[in-house]
Amino acid sequence: MSITIELPDEIAQQLETAWGNVSRRALEVLAVEGYRSGDLSAGQVAELLGLSAWETEKFLKKREADLHYSPEDLRHDLQTQERLLNK
Question: Nearest-CA neighbor of 46 among 36, 57, 37, 38?
């Protein structure tokens, strides 16, 4: 899907001066908001922005969009670790 945003020339120029690539910045904002709302996973953010898992984690942390990690996720990870260590 392609999305077009119409900006007045003066605002577009101001944003380009401040941000550089306005299109990329808009995509990043969309990805962060999608992640914060729970509508996108970290993997989907990585795919959308062309980042590795580590780059995505760093990207989201820098934007204070903390990793979605519930107590249930922790329990699951601890059970997996216990199972692997007991082999």
Answer: 57
Terminal C-alpha separation, the chain = 47
**pLDDT, tens digit, for every residue of 3-16?**
899 999 999 999 99
Amino acid identity for residue 6 in this structure = E
| Domain ranges across the chain | 9-85
- Of residues 26, 36, 78, 39, the one with CA closest to residue 61: 36
CB atoms under 10 Å from CB of 51, counted, come to 17
Q: For 38, which DSSP code?
A: T
Query: Crossing angle for the helix pair 42-49 and 22-36, nearest 10 degrees?
Result: 170
